[in-house]
Amino acid sequence: GAALYAYRHSDTSTTKVAEYESMDVTITWASITGKPSSSPSLIDDAVTQRHTHANATTLDKIGETGGRMTFDGSAVGADWLTQNW
Asked: N or C end: fewer C-beta atoms under 10 angstroms in the chain?
């Protein structure tokens, strides 16, 4: 609950002018306006999988050594040597 008081400067008194009670409110998914079209279970599943990948084992092999990209510990790419350009 809460109360609203008015303050009188002339005599520094206060007077209660209103009192409020809190309400226990239950909101259901069906009663929400403007809600997502997905169901709560689909949203929960998306949150759970927010950082999963079907190819996580392959992605985990990507790395870097000495500023060079590696895959499974081996350097990726080629060294280019340009002469007489």
From this structure: C
Ramachandran sector of residue 12 (left: φ over 0; alpha: ψ -120 to 50; beta: rest): left
* Residue pair 35/29 in contact by the 8 Å Cβ criterion: yes
Using CA atoms of 40, 45, 50, 55 in order, give the dihedral in degrees to the nearest 10.
-150
Do 1 and 20 meet the contact criterion of CB atoms below 8 Å apart? yes
Question: Residue 34: CB partners within 8 Å, gap ≥ 6?
Answer: none
Model pLDDT, residue 83: 74
- State how far Cα 3 lies from the chain centre: 36
- Residue 14: band (very low, low, confident or very high) from pLDDT cuts 50, 70, 90: very high
Mean pLDDT of 3-15: 94
